[in-house]
Design a protein that fits this description.
Blueprint (H helix, E strand, L loop, with lengths): L7 H19 L1 E4 L2 E4 L1 H11 L2 H19 L4 H19 L9 H26 L3 H28 L4 H5 L4
Helix pairs in contact: 1-2, 1-3, 2-3, 2-4, 2-6, 3-4, 4-5, 5-6
């Protein structure tokens, strides 16, 4: 029987990033058609350093809980979209060692993550609010939010001392 266990340190980091995602879900900048959130920064950063399951917990479940607490209408859209975004980024980056992911894999992973986030929220918004026009109004801001989150998430990993955290989290 092959049981995977998770270390207490890793569990605490997952909980920390998930709570940061929830907190950043509560702060927004009003824009036409909705709000501009900064939670994508945490989702992208966590997806770059965690395995796919842990990235899903931070991105999908964290966004779901943030929406549940602050604005429940799109909570299932957030669960699916940010969950898929985080898992995909994590799978493309493929953290099998303690090394930082290669820059080209990071760029590819974050670009695919941006497409998933923008597409998922645009389709979800059109479905939840029953109007494609509403989704089109928010589209430029959705793209900006996704790009900003990916860029800042990558900068946090490569250009700050936060990359030390990668050596602290045990790899599975």
């Amino acid at each position: 029987m092959n049981k995977k266990t998770i270390s207490t340190k890793k569990l605490c980091f997952i909980a920390l990033f998930m709570s940061m995602n929830i907190i950043l879900s509560s702060f927004s900048i009003p824009v036409p058609g909705g709000h501009f959130y900064l939670c994508d920064v945490i989702i992208c950063f966590a997806a770059l350093i965690f395995d796919p399951f842990s990235a899903f917990i931070v991105g999908g479940v964290g966004s779901f809980l943030g929406d549940l607490i602050f604005y429940p209408t799109p909570m299932f859209v957030s669960l699916a979209t940010h969950g898929l975004q985080a898992v995909t980024i994590s799978l493309i980056v493929g953290k099998k060692t303690n090394e930082l992911p290669k820059v080209w894999r990071t760029v590819l992973a974050l670009t695919v993550g941006i497409v998933i986030m923008v597409t998922g929220y645009s389709l979800g918004r059109a479905f939840v609010y029953s109007t494609p026009e509403y989704a089109l109004i928010k589209l430029p801001y959705e793209i900006g939010q996704a790009v900003l989150g990916a860029v800042i998430g990558a900068l946090l990993l490569y250009k700050t001392s936060l990359k030390r955290i990668i050596n602290v989290i045990p790899k599975e």
